[in-house]
Amino acid sequence: MAPTLVWIDDPENNGWTCSSCSWKYPVPTFLSNPEARKAYDRLAASNFREHVCELPVTHQDIEDTSTAPTFTKRVMKLVKVGYKPKDAVQIALDDVALEHRNDPKVMAQARAEAQDFLQRVRQGRI
Ligand SMILES: [Zn+2]
């Protein structure tokens, strides 16, 4: 889904934000006249177009703070020591399957991450 500019309609926390990442353009408190407000909206829109979505709003961020290596980190480590991405993914999947005794929930998550990882490799993002 392409990110869109979203208005936060909260009197305490007004501003423009991105629908798919943590980018935010808060409304300055001194903004009272309509002309200034229009200028602010234009600035927000141009800043929004220039920003690059980096922090997707997903539970991934929470998992990253844990000490357990995420599947993607595991794969990246293997790639760094010279494995091809496809082989690294397979090795990591085997490792996870062993460690978690093929727990279907864990395996489903790992496979989803594996697919996501390979897709990013294809798109040249890794
Ligand atoms: Zn964004």
Shape: elongated
Share of residues in strands: 5-15%
Poorly predicted sequence stretches spanning 5 or more consecutive residues: 59-67
Trace the largest sheet across and list its strands.
1-2-3
Instruction: State the helical fraction.
Output: 40-55%
Short key terms for the protein model shown above:
126 residues; mainly alpha; three-stranded antiparallel beta sheet; 9% strand; elongated; binds zinc ion
Provide the fold topology:
Blueprint: E1 5-8, E2 15-18, E3 24-26, H1 34-50, H2 60-64, H3 71-80, H4 85-99, H5 104-122
Antiparallel strand pairs: 1-2, 2-3
Helix pairs in contact: 3-4, 4-5
Bound molecules: zinc ion (ZN).
Zinc ion binds at residues 3, 18, 20-21, 23, 51, 53.
What do you see in this structure?
- This protein is mainly alpha-helical and 126 residues long.
- Helix content is 52%, strand content 9%.
- The protein contains five helices and three strands.
- The protein has helices at 34-50, 60-64, 71-80, 85-99, 104-122, and strands at 5-8, 15-18, 24-26.
- Strands 1-2-3 form a three-stranded antiparallel beta sheet, covered by helices on one side.
- Helix 4 (85-99) runs antiparallel to helix 5.
- The longest helix has 19 residues, at 104-122.
- It is elongated.
- Mean pLDDT is 82; it is low at 59-67.
- Bound molecules: zinc ion (ZN).
